[in-house]
Amino acid sequence: MVVRRMWHARRFKAHISPHECVQEIVVLSKGRFGLDKEADPFELLVWMLNTLHGMVRKKKTSVVYETVRGEMQVATWKVQDMLQDDMVEDVEATILTMPFLALSLELPPTPLFTHPSTDDEDERANIPQVALGTLLQRYNGTTTVETNGLVQQYTVTNLPAYIVCHVKRFTKHNMSEKNLTVVNFPVRNVPFGDLLHVHGSISVTYDLVVNVCHVGHQGKSAVDGAVLTEFEESPFFAYVRQGENLWFRVHDLQVEPVMPQMLFLSDSYIQVWQRN
Description:
- By secondary structure, the chain is an alpha+beta fold.
- It has eight helices and 13 strands.
- The strands form three sheets. A seven-stranded mixed sheet has the order 3-7-13-9-10-11-12, with no helix packed on it. The chain has a four-stranded antiparallel sheet with strand order 2-1-6-5.
- Strand 11 and strand 12 (about 255-260) form a beta hairpin.
- The radius of gyration is 21 Å and the shape is globular.
C-alpha cells in the first residue's frame, strides 16, 4: 500500500513518511524487522522483494521478479561418487535450473597472519584486495565449488534488468566477524555478459546504481576519515546514483551529495547494477 501511494499519479503529498514505511514493514514482517533491533539489510531486501512480488503478482510472475530475478543452472556431483569412480568425467551430474534474486560473492579467507603496524596507511595496505570480476567467476559455468560433500558448478543462463550482488563479509549471523577484503570494481559498463558467459548476451553491460556499505573496524571509519561514533547505532549506509554521475550518501534520514570517488572508500556489502 505504501509503495502504491508513493508512485500514485494523483497522490496528495509529494513524499511518504519514512516512519510510516518502517511501521508498515514491522507489521508485514510480524516483528522480524524493526527499529528496536539491528537486522541484516540483505535479508530485509530479499524479504521486501518477495513480499512485493506476492502483492502485485499476476499468475506466477510479477513486475518485481521480471525486473530483478535471473536464472542459473546448478550441476551437482557427490564427492563420494567422484572418489569411487576412476574416470571422474563419467560421473553423471544432477542438473537443476534455479531462479535467483541475488548473486552471492564469496570473499577469500582473511589471512591469519599480517604484519603488525601502527600506521593507518600501512594497516590498510595489509588488507587483501580482490576484483569484482574474480568473484563473479564462481558463476561462469567452469568453476567448481565444494561444500558439504558436494561439488557444484553454477552457470548463469539469464540476466535480469537489475542485478543484485551480495558480498558475504560476515561469517556469523550476528555479524561479529567481518571479512575486510577490499572489492575493486568499476562503476560503468561492467560486461556481466562476458564475465558470466550468458548465452547470446556477450555484449551486455551494466552500470552501478546502488552501493550499500558497512562501516566498522577497530573503532574507525573509512568514510571521510571520521571516527565511528556517527555509525555506532547504524553501521550501514548507501550510495545512490541519480542521473548520469550524481551520487548521494544515504544514512538513516540523512541524505547528502558526495563525489563519485567516495564509493571506493568503504566496504561494499550490497550492490545493484542496472543494464544498459
